[in-house]
Design a protein that fits this description.
This protein has 116 residues and is an alpha+beta fold. It has 3 helices and 5 strands.
């Protein structure tokens, strides 16, 4: 009784006999497809990300006193002091904040802050 009900909702699967002269799956095609995905992943994701990271490391290493910067939080200021891992940024008269060097997202041309 239960089998009849289940057969009504779910039809039983029947295995088909292999076709005469059927060839096995092409293993080299599967390997080539996998290699293709790895290459696409490298060129679309890994390579651009490592390029951006390299540019950011170079930007952080070239920071100098007097540079006008934008932080990752959107704060604009002028660097007044630099240590190994931190910078002191003057954001207004007599207002300075201490940030990690990694927080700098861009260096803007000098004189930009005066025009704002």
């Amino acid at each position: 009784m239960v089998n009849e009900i289940l057969n009504f909702f779910i039809s039983p699967a029947m295995a088909a006999a292999p076709a005469a002269g059927a060839q096995p799956a092409n293993e080299w095609g599967s390997i080539a497809l996998l290699v293709g995905f790895v290459v696409i992943f490298y060129f679309l994701l890994l390579r651009p990300q490592s390029k951006r990271a390299k540019e950011h490391r170079q930007l952080v290493s070239n920071l100098a006193k007097g540079d006008e910067v934008i932080t990752s939080g959107g704060i604009l200021g002028k660097i007044s002091k630099i240590t190994d891992d931190f910078i002191v940024v003057a954001i207004a008269d007599n207002v300075e904040i201490t940030l990690q060097k990694q927080a700098v997202s861009a260096v803007i041309p000098k004189g930009t802050l005066k025009s704002l």
